[in-house]
Amino acid sequence: MRDRAEGASLLDRAFARGVKPLRAGIGASAVALLIMVAAFNTGTNLLYVMGSTLLGLGTLSLALGGLNLRGIAITRRFPSDIHAGTESEVQIEASHPKAALGHYGLVVSRIAPGSASADAVHFISIEPGKTQRGTIKVRFARRGRFGVGPMLLSTCFPFGFLEFWTRRGKPAEVIVFPRLVSVAPALRRVGSLTGDLEIQKKGSGISLFSIRPYQPGDPARSIHWKLSAKGGGLLVREYEAEDMKKIRLVLDFHASASPTTDEIECFENAISLTASLARHFINRDYEVGLLLPTGPVEPAGGREHLRAMMRRLALAEIERFDRPVAPLDSEAECAEIWIGPRAEASAHTDKTDESPGARHETDARRRIDLGTAPGRTIHIGVGSADEAAAPRADNTPAAPGR
């Protein structure tokens, strides 16, 4: 994600640079003052020379330190996929194409203030007309939208007496995707759903269909090396096709007017599990859709579609989940995986609740189930533990037809 430009106010410009004395500089100044006082009282020329030398070094430090920061351009590039709780590398570039002299001892900090990791990159030197690159690992503790301001460029060049600093770079906006969790517990239930999608014809499924001789253009990953090593030339695996590889993830979470701490934790676990399942199925060439109370995302595949779903989940707010998921009137064949609180993740039941809210939620689930032509809907419950809970509900076939 590239930096997003924003206009700087007059106050920001007025305080965009500065200088502060360091401990070494304060000590050198005190020593120089004592030497000059002693030289004045005793008239010793050597003391005058020593004091003058220290004062000259301080003046030189004041002049060269400011010049060392002049004209340097700093670029900050965040990776396109940043997940909460996962370390990501931010690339920093420092350059000055028109410089006649080099720049030395530079430190770039305040790169990602919202991160829990170290936040500084050091450049020993930048030669004239060249670009130096560095990386820093950042880790955000939670998902969401983060605004990061300009970076801080500083130097203690040349003698470490003074620290000069200035602001570089434009404000940026970073979208941190949800935390990724293990999907193994959920896949114990989902496996019975995806396993029914294979049909007995050649395609790109996961079950073996046949073994045949290698033909030009076949991918190398399809070669059966063990059988080929027995002689007779290269042999290639063929897999069963999958009749339908569409899955819709339904985030079935209905928050109270004033969410409790357990509700918020459960909501975050549901968001993380939904994001992890979406990534899992996209990586296996499924078309994945998303259904939230705020609206649907139609099933599709590819990395850009995955990023769009991750962004939607990253910006989801529990306050917006104040109503049940609305049913979809869609004719597309699409299996569904419902993810919600553990107490609401039961399979379809004949028990009825006469309250309007409960009746609407039950009708909505029933109508969606009747529309799944592949015939399967799976409910996965999550709790308020640190990790998403294992699936608990039964895999219930949908009623035939609408």
What does this structure look like?
The chain is 28% helix and 30% strand. The chain has 402 residues and is an alpha+beta fold. The chain folds into two domains: 10-175, Immunoglobulin-like, CATH 2.60.40; 177-402, no CATH class. The strands form five sheets. Strands 15-14-13-16-17-18 form a six-stranded mixed sheet, covered by helices on one side. Strand 8 and strand 9 (162-168) form a beta hairpin. The longest helix has 25 residues, at 45-69. The radius of gyration is 31 Å and the shape is elongated. The two termini are 45 Å apart. 30% of the residues are buried. The model is unreliable at 1-14, 196-201, 343-376 and 385-402 (pLDDT under 50).
Summary?
Helix content is 28%, strand content 30%. It is α+β, with helices and mostly antiparallel strands and 402 residues long.
Number of helices: 8
- The radius of gyration is 31 Å
Classify the secondary structure makeup into a structural class: alpha+beta
| pLDDT < 50 runs, ≥5 residues | 1-14, 196-201, 343-376, 385-402
Percent of residues in helices comes to 25-40%
Q: How many individual β-strands?
A: 18
* Lateral strand order in the biggest sheet: 15-14-13-16-17-18
Order of helices and strands: HEHHEEEEEEEEEHEHEEHEEHEHEE
> What is the 3D shape?
elongated
Count of separate structural domains:
2
